[in-house]
């Protein structure tokens, strides 16, 4: 009996060792394509992560919960430097969102596009959605006085950037930084999905044609607007000395909008007003644009008065006239004005 038990144990041990050897050989020679080996390999090896396009990441974050629409404003160093009584154009612009009706939540959808590091750092400090635009070979830091060569170049760079945003599939509500937001424009803009573009004008004068203003407009991302912005940007090569707004006006007047089948709504100045033509009704005014004004100090001074008028209206709900825009009116005769470099 003892001999039999020893033999059985020896046989069992031999079988176990043989089985273990087979398993070892099997796993040690398993190819890399084996699913178990792949699983073990993938568990211990970090997966390759492809970097997301920086602009795409900013747009995705800003458009969340806003029907794929982003609010875009362009800033440079001149817009974040103090003017006059310690105000900056950017501070005044952002203050209007705080003072406006239904506008504060819209800051979550605002993307500030900076042309230089100073403006970008200020944007980051304010914890907004920020993007640094690539402007290699061009200095866009200081103030670019209306219709100067640098001003025209900055406007064309802006147009090209907006085309890039449209290509990313986002709808755009573009605003100049010298536009005060007193009410949410989304309740005033048409909800008609067939409209490709809604754009502000300098004056309500349909008989004389629509004098469009590219300082405030909404544009949908689709093939027709791709074609418009492509054509618009390409025309810079044949339009020396013309700002982008004048070139777009030319495309409108010569029928190119109609050729594309674009559906356009021209925003009236009662709701989307500016210094070229004031709104006569504070009860419905949505935005106030410091257009018809030459330089930043004048804009900041007169827009500060506009914001004061708005605060008074919110308290009294009495429809008064806006304070005169004397500084902007006089800016065209200010031949001695020299912008900061």
Automatic annotation (TrEMBL):
Q: Which taxonomic lineage does the organism of this UniProt entry have?
A: Eukaryota, Viridiplantae, Streptophyta, Embryophyta, Tracheophyta
Q: Please give the superkingdom of this protein's source.
A: Eukaryota
Protein's name in the database:
Nucleotide-diphospho-sugar transferase domain-containing protein
Residue ranges of the Nucleotide-diphospho-sugar transferase domain? 106-303
């Amino acid at each position: 009996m003892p001999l039999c038990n020893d033999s059985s144990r020896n046989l069992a041990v031999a079988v176990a060792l043989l089985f273990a050897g087979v398993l070892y050989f099997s796993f040690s020679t398993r190819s890399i394509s084996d699913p178990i080996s792949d699983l073990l390999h993938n568990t211990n090896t970090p997966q390759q992560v492809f970097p997301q396009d920086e602009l795409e990441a900013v747009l995705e974050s800003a458009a969340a919960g806003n029907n794929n629409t982003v609010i875009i404003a362009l800033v440079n160093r001149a817009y974040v430097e103090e003017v006059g009584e310690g105000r900056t154009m950017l501070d005044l612009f952002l203050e209007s969102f705080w003072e406006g009706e239904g506008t504060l939540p819209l800051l979550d959808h605002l993307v500030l596009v900076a042309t230089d590091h100073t403006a970008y750092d200020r944007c980051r400090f304010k914890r907004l959605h920020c993007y640094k635009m690539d402007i290699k070979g061009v200095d866009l830091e200081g103030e670019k006085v209306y219709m100067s060569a640098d001003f025209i170049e900055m406007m064309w760079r802006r147009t090209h950037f907006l085309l890039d945003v449209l290509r990313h599939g986002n709808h755009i509500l573009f605003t100049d930084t010298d536009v005060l937001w007193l009410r949410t424009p989304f309740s005033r803009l048409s909800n008609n999905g067939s409209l490709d573009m809604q754009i502000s004008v300098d004056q309500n004068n349909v008989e004389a044609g629509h004098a469009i203003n590219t300082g405030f407009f909404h544009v949908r991302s689709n093939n027709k607007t791709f074609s418009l912005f492509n054509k618009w940007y390409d025309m810079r090569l044949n339009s020396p000395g013309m700002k982008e707004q004048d070139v777009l006006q030319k495309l409108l007047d010569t029928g190119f909008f109609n050729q594309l089948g674009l559906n356009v709504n021209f925003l009236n100045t009662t709701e989307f007003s500016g210094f070229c033509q004031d709104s006569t009704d504070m009860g419905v005014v949505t935005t106030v644009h410091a257009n018809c004004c030459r330089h930043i100090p004048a804009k900041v001074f007169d827009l500060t008065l506009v914001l004061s008028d708005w605060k008074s209206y919110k308290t009294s709900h009495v429809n008064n006239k806006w304070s005169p825009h004397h500084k902007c009116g006089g800016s065209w005769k200010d031949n001695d004005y020299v912008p900061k470099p």
